[in-house]
């Protein structure tokens, strides 16, 4: 299955994507994780992305498309993939659509995790303590939520207009939300 998970920072996308990977036996592709790996490796790309990420802004569409194109050219995506963190704006959604069309592998499902803003701030604060991510400070979190509503929320409409969107309530236990996602996917 070729799947996109959409949702604001703190909505549980990453956690649910990791579970889906085990359930569906397809790779979990998190652009945040790919970028953090570049930063940790100190690559040219990582150096470019580091400050942007720490501020909670979006890394350039060009860098992201290159990363996604190269990741989707690997053999382990033959049976599908779960995209987490991409696309994050309408330009990326268009680029992804074109890329997938060019390899004859269009998306089969888009799941949007719905969580109210107040709860997101609370969840990210909890995660900041546990993981110590550089971009989980209050200023960057505010910025990421702002970027989500300005740039990423329109992606919901993009997929809605293609009749491809399933909305899932992201409030509940991890098991409850996971069961809802599977149900939305018809599994
Ligand atoms: P979260 O969902 O908690 O914001 P992610 O791990 O998905 O965290 O992303 C962390 C950061 O990586 C983002 O704030 C952004 O700077 C960068 N990033 C990840 N995916 C993209 C993308 N598709 N386009 C641009 N920047 C991205």
What features would you highlight for this structure?
globular; alpha/beta; 5-stranded parallel β-sheet; binds adenosine-5'-diphosphate; single chain; Rossmann fold; about 60% helix
Indicate the CATH topology: Rossmann fold
CATH superfamily: P-loop containing nucleotide triphosphate hydrolases
Strand order of the largest sheet: 2-3-1-4-5
Bound molecules: adenosine-5'-diphosphate
| Coarse structural class | alpha/beta
Radius of gyration: 16 Å
Q: Describe it for me?
A:
There is one protein chain. The protein is an alpha/beta fold and 187 residues long. The protein contains 8 helices and 5 strands. The chain has helices spanning 13-24, 31-41, 44-55, 61-72, 90-102, 117-131, 138-160, 174-184, and strands at 2-6, 28-30, 81-84, 109-114, 165-169. Strands 2-3-1-4-5 form a 5-stranded parallel sheet. α1 crosses α8 and α4 (61-72) packs parallel to α5 (90-102). The longest helix is centred in the last third of the chain and has 23 residues, at 138-160. The chain is globular and about 40 Å long. The mean pLDDT is 95. Bound molecules: adenosine-5'-diphosphate (ADP). The site of adenosine-5'-diphosphate has 17 residues, from α2 and α3.
